[in-house]
Specification:
The protein is an alpha+beta fold and 84 residues long. It contains 3 helices and 7 strands; from the N terminus they run βαβααβββββ. Helices cover 26% and strands 27% of the residues. This is ThiamineS protein.
Length: 84
C-alpha cells in the first residue's frame, strides 16, 4: 500500500511516499516503518505506538487501533506540529 509521509516523517525517510506490504493494522504499519527506517524513537512512547501520530486512511482520520487496512488503501501519516 502507498503511505504518504508529511513533514518530519518525510524528512527522516528521504521520501514523501513509501510502499508497505503485508500489514493489516495501523500498529503493524507503524512498527514496520519504524523498524525499516530506524525511527522507533519517533513512533513509540513507553514501548507502544505513540497515540499522537496522525493517521488518515482513505481521507478519514483513524486511530492506532484501526485494523482493516487493505493493499489499495491510501494512507497519510504525520506528526503533530506547533506553530504560531
Amino acid at each position: 500500500m502507498k503511505v504518504k509521509l508529511l513533514g518530519y516523517l518525510a524528512y527522516r525517510v528521504g521520501h514523501d511516499t513509501v510502499e508497505v506490504y503485508g500489514v493489516r493494522s495501523v500498529r503493524e504499519l507503524i512498527r514496520s516503518l519504524a523498524k525499516f527506517y530506524g525511527m522507533e524513537e519517533v513512533f513509540f512512547k513507553d514501548g507502544d505506538v505513540w497515540e499522537g501520530v496522525l493517521i488518515i486512511v482513505n481521507g478519514k482520520l483513524v486511530g492506532i487501533d484501526f485494523e482493516d487496512l487493505k493493499e489499495e488503501d491510501e494512507i497519510v501519516l504525520s506528526l503533530p506540529t506547533a506553530g504560531g
